[in-house]
Amino acid sequence: MITRLEIENFKAIRKVAIDLTPLTVFVGPNDSGKTTILQALHLLGESFSGRPWSSEAHSVFGLEPESYFFDRTLPIRISVELAAGAPLEGTIRYTLGFQLVDGSFKAVEERLSVGADEFLDGAGEQKRTPSKKGHWTGDVSLLREQQHLADQEPYRTLRASLRSFYAAFEPPKMVTPSEADAQLVSSGAGLAGVLDRLLTSPERDVVMEKFNKALRRLSANVHSIAMRPAQAGNAKGKELLFTLPDRTTAVPAREASTGLVLVAGYLALMYGTRHRMFLIEEPENGVHPLAILTVVDLLRELASSGRQVIATTHSPVLLDYMEPEDVQIVTRRGSEGVQVTPMFKSRFFKEGTQRPDLGELWYSVGDDAIISTAS
User: Fold this and answer.
1) What is the pTM of this model?
2) Radius of gyration (Cα) for the chain, nearest Å?
3) CA dist list (Å): 158 to 94, 119, 254
């Protein structure tokens, strides 16, 4: 699990340092930088695949390359800390810095250490394991080059912890039919393929019992999910259905409620993917306020299964179900850039006083009042 994140010179962020928990929620005004924090983590994880360093780097988040930098004259630097896996002991710290060179991203700094033991230095030279022959160009990260070390520590723990799924679900894409081998992507497209595989897997009975039970918590008008060959237009593959309590009638997902489709997507993340970190944009969207607890319970179950959930929200109701230590307030102040303040540092949470409902507090006094009282 990532316990600390530091970001420098990325988009609207000049410099921030954030302590993370198994379930961390970022709250704040529109355009304050919440999504930027998620994107920085996702970009770091994607560097292991080499994709952000390709000539198509500008398409990672649909931006021109210059838009990634707070200051074009300085490199972007992203650092994370996490506990080392056996047989190593101590804290893993990994830093990756990159700059725009001739219109393409280049890795210009890479450091990896466990405690005082350094594995990669700032020049990109490997310390304790054989280095790939030839000059390091920075076209890909060294961790991408060192594929033969993927099963060794600390590389294994670092790679696994940073393997993230960035979820910005769009219900119209989630209900689109897909082939059985389709992979779930950020928009939620491919959902039908993932669920079809779950329905035919050896663990089907156990997984589907939990899956359908969660759906019924959201709506008493649904019994389970089912699949059928796509019947809309020229669509190929299979489409998702929601079976009603009589077990003989089924409604296509494209005609079901947005909240039901979204919860099916979160359940697919839990049971149909192997990612260790989930970066989720506003999981409350499309969900009735009285059903948000169901979503929060799903996120907590994800976080308690050895994985990590980092989400953004605008919902006071969702905050009411969170602990102060799990909430970070994000604001943005002109030339200072993005600022991140832990909610629990506010005077509203002084020891010995009754803990307020987080959502009610945030909604009634606002971001500035909470931040101004932080120690």
Assistant:
1) 0.89
2) 22
3) 8, 12, 39
The DSSP secondary structure of 225-294, one letter per residue, reads EEEEE--STT--SEEEEEE-TTSS-EEEGGGS-HHHHHHHHHHHHHHH---SEEEES-TTTTS-GGGHHH
- Total length of the chain: 375
- CA separation for the pair 245, 308 (Å, rounded): 34
Q: Any idea what DSSP says for residue 306?
A: T
The DSSP line for 92-138 is: EEEEEEEEEETTEEEEEEEEEEETTEEEE-TTS-BSSSPPPSS---S
Q: How far apart are CA 196 and CA 51, in angstroms?
A: 28
Distances, alpha carbon 23 to alpha carbons 42, 289, 306, in Å:
16, 20, 11
58's tokens: 């500008």
CA distances from 193 to 16, 174, 197 (A): 39, 10, 6
Distance CA 43, CA 105 (A): 12
Q: Which domains does the chain have, with CATH numbers?
A: 2-163+274-372 (3.40.50.300), 171-266 (no CATH)
Render each residue's pLDDT in the chain as its tens digit; 375 residues. 999 999 999 999 999 999 999 999 999 999 999 999 999 999 888 877 655 544 444 445 666 777 888 998 999 999 999 988 778 889 999 998 888 877 777 778 888 899 888 887 655 444 444 344 444 555 556 666 666 666 788 888 888 898 899 999 999 999 999 998 899 999 999 999 999 999 999 988 988 998 899 899 888 899 999 999 987 667 789 999 999 998 889 999 999 999 999 999 999 999 988 899 999 999 999 888 888 999 999 999 999 888 999 999 999 999 999 999 999 999 998 889 999 999 988 877 765 456 678 888 887 878 777 887 665
Q: Which residue has the tokens 């506003």?
A: 282
Hey, how many other C-beta atoms are within 10 angstroms of the C-beta on 205? 8
Distances (CA, A) of 178 to 52, 184, 193, 201, 258: 27, 10, 5, 17, 18
> In angstroms, how far is CA 106 from the centroid of its own chain?
24
